[in-house]
Amino acid sequence: MSAARTVAARIVVVGTGYVGLTTGACLASLGHHVTCVDVDAAKVARLAAGRVDIMEPGLAELVGRGLTKGNLAFVGGARDAVRDAAAVFLCVPTPMGAGGAADLRAVEVVVAEIGDALPSGCALVTKSTVPVGTARRIGELLGRDDVPVVSNPEFLREGTAVEDFLGPERIVVGSDTPGAAERVADLYRALGAPSVVTDAASAELVKYAANCFLAMKLSYVNAIAELCERLGADIDAVTEGMGHDRRIGRSFLKPGPGWGGSCLPKDTSALLRIAESVRYDFGLLAAAVDENIAQRDRIIARIAGAAGGDLAGARIGLLGLAFKAGTDDLRDSPALSVASVLCAHGAEITAYDPAVAGDLPGMTVADNAYRVAKGADVVVVLTEWPEFRRLDWHYLAALMRGDAVVDTRNLLEPGVVLDAGLSWQGIGRPRRAVSATSVS
Ligand SMILES: NC(=O)c1ccc[n+]([C@@H]2O[C@H](COP(=O)([O-])OP(=O)(O)OC[C@H]3O[C@@H](n4cnc5c(N)ncnc54)[C@H](O)[C@@H]3O)[C@@H](O)[C@H]2O)c1
Ligand SMILES: O=c1ccn([C@@H]2O[C@H](COP(=O)(O)OP(=O)(O)O[C@H]3O[C@H](CO)[C@@H](O)[C@H](O)[C@H]3O)[C@@H](O)[C@H]2O)c(=O)[nH]1
Predict the structure, then answer these.
(1) Does residue 109 line the site of ligand 1, with CB under 6 A?
(2) CA 20 to 30 Å from 60, out of 5, 144, 238, 423?
(3) CB 86, CB 9: distance < 8 Å
(4) Handedness of CA 215, 218, 223, 224 (dihedral sign)
(5) Is the beta carbon of 14 within 6 A of some atom in ligand 1?
(6) Identical fold at 10-198 and 233-425?
(7) How far is CA 356 from the centre of its chain?
(8) Fold of 233-425
(9) Among 69, 49, 54, which Cα is nearest to 19's?
(10) Whose CA is nearest to atom 7 of ligand 2?
């Protein structure tokens, strides 16, 4: 970590979701004076009272510290907040819109709201994931030569947002206004991270290029897992053998029920539309998206097979609903996608997730893991919560009507499940437990 000192700046963050709240609280922890703005008045009131309602380790503590120290505030009106800002970070949603492109309405609303209230020289920074050309378009909407637009995409992962923000592998900043990107990069100087300073279009494309690469890597792994099953190989051994190659790397090699979450699905879709807009047929990326649907469908077929071939009336217990462990976010969760198809085929579903409470359409949400096993024909692991490994599988077996366990995350110890008199099927694994070949 460099010993570089942060020069405190007045910063406004618009949008207090996973990205905005993390950005605001972390920039305040670096010594900046941060005002966070949101349209959701009830949320602003909760945050101003120190209440954080998303599951992100360390975030509530940082918010509390900023409020106590007095350099972090939450307000409802963006226009007043931005009047003396050196930089305004846009962290509003850019969901998948009609036709699959990113919906930029929230960004446009904020730009229209604050455009003429921004002080001269203030950098307007897009941290939201936005299509290439958005910085230029925002510049046109603003119509001001004295307000540079800067792209500063965010790479944090949910569940480790604070850790990722404060220990980034890189900071990417791009602008077409000379010096503006460097000024925004300076706000992060205390983190000592390498920075990539470039033009706006390149910075905007980095974000999609990175997320879509990760999605393609996962689709590739899921396809290799399918080959493993057909060829009698073991995905754990195959990915371990691949991962030792530093050019490939060990991360993002775990097969699963398909990739999901609030970013990869919408960002793959958006990049496909961006490619279309310049008449490039991005078949490689389209195949990764198709493979993700095929993986979900293979999981459904496996569950149907485990239920005896017919899902109508089958009782299926689901362990996990969040799109990955460590978060309570259900947006675009593969678990919910699997559940909705099972439900459409007439299965009765009971689900449990340690981070999810309350009813969801088409299923009963239980308040403990054992409830999902009661009378179940099949129990399916869909999210890799470590606590599922520690369940008493003999007790689960006694509660079940059938004896099948489908483990879409290869999370469980197969031997433990088999010892309980149940069958176990993982992904890309032989039906019986095989330990990965260890390479030292
Ligand atoms: N979630 C992630 O892990 C992640 C990581 C990197 C980048 N991103 C990108 O960051 C952006 C935000 O994502 P998120 O997950 O934090 O969203 P989110 O849905 O968690 O939060 C967005 C917040 O913006 C607020 N908002 C909406 N319109 C507003 C307006 N006009 N003025 C003020 N506030 C407004 C909402 O009330 C909400 O609190 C998206 O573009 C996303 O692609 C997300
Ligand atoms: O080996 C792996 C790793 C991940 N996943 C799945 O891939 C999806 C995405 O996981 P992850 O990338 O950890 O989730 P996000 O928090 O959505 O983070 C991604 O999306 C963010 C929003 O753009 C980016 O900032 C992050 O860099 C990028 O990793 C989830 O369904 C995971 O279960 C696997 O199946 N196997």
Answers:
(1) yes
(2) 5
(3) yes
(4) positive
(5) yes
(6) yes
(7) 16
(8) Rossmann fold (3.40.50)
(9) 54
(10) 259
What ipTM is given for this predicted complex?
Answer: 0.99
Å from CA of 189 to ligand 1 middle: 24
If one residue of 51, 74, 92 were mutated to test the ligand 1 pocket, choosing by the most ligand atoms within 8 A of its CB, it would be 92
Residues in the chain: 440
The class level of CATH for 10-198 reads alpha beta
pLDDT tens per residue across span 18-27: 999 999 999 9
69 is in an annotated binding site: no
Nearest of 176, 177, 171, 184 to residue 200 by alpha carbon: 176
Q: Cα separations (Å) of 322 from 163, 315, 326?
A: 20, 20, 8
- Candidate of 12, 14, 19 to mutate for ligand 1, largest count of ligand atoms within 8 Å of Cβ: 19
Q: At what angle do helices 283-306 and 264-277 cross, to 10 degrees?
A: 150
**At 350, phi and psi to the nearest 5?**
-120, 135
Q: What is the pTM of this model?
A: 0.96
Q: What is the pLDDT of residues 229-281, one digit of tens each?
A: 999 999 999 999 999 999 999 999 999 999 999 999 999 999 999 999 999 99
